[in-house]
Specification:
Elements: H1 9-15, H2 18-24, E1 44-48, E2 54-57, E3 61-62, E4 70-71, E5 79-84, E6 91-96, E7 102-107, E8 118-121, E9 126-130
Antiparallel strand pairs: 1-2, 1-9, 3-4, 4-8, 5-6, 6-7, 7-8
């Protein structure tokens, strides 16, 4: 099977929209309250918009009021955390474990009844694979 993952930034630039490239590959941030998944409550799995890897379950999504989609946990081994000291701040950057694209940041101000984490993720970095909830 041929590897279809872009091998350099020029290939990423060809594959992604200009906004997605700016955020996913250059670490920019979309404007708050502008993303298509900020207020979505559909069931499913959120995948990396760059490579398609599964990142977050809709079961972990919550309304943080921050203006970006927020999750209290990532799927196992789906993301990596890196220190980010840009913009005069000390933060923890969230990247896709598979393609190493920037997704957002994680903070320790999430729901205390779960993980206490708030994965603050840019909508442009996500694709929702919707699933109908099974009725019991």
């Amino acid at each position: 099977m041929k590897n279809t993952m872009p091998q350099n930034e020029n290939e990423w630039k060809e594959k992604l929209s200009p906004e997605a490239f700016e955020v996913l590959r250059l670490g920019k941030t979309e404007a708050p309250h502008s993303g298509k998944y900020t207020y979505v409550k559909d069931d499913g799995v959120y995948r990396c918009a760059a490579c398609g890897a599964q990142l977050f379950s809709s079961d972990t999504k919550f309304d943080s009021g921050s203006g970006w989609p927020s999750f209290d946990d990532a799927l196992p081994e789906a993301v990596e955390i890196r220190e980010d000291n840009s913009h005069g701040m000390r933060r923890s950057e969230v990247i896709c474990a598979q393609c190493k694209s920037h997704l957002g940041h994680v903070f320790d101000d999430g729901p205390k009844e779960t993980t206490g984490k708030r994965y603050c993720i840019n909508s442009v970095c996500l694709d929702l694979e919707s699933q109908e909830k099974k009725k019991k």
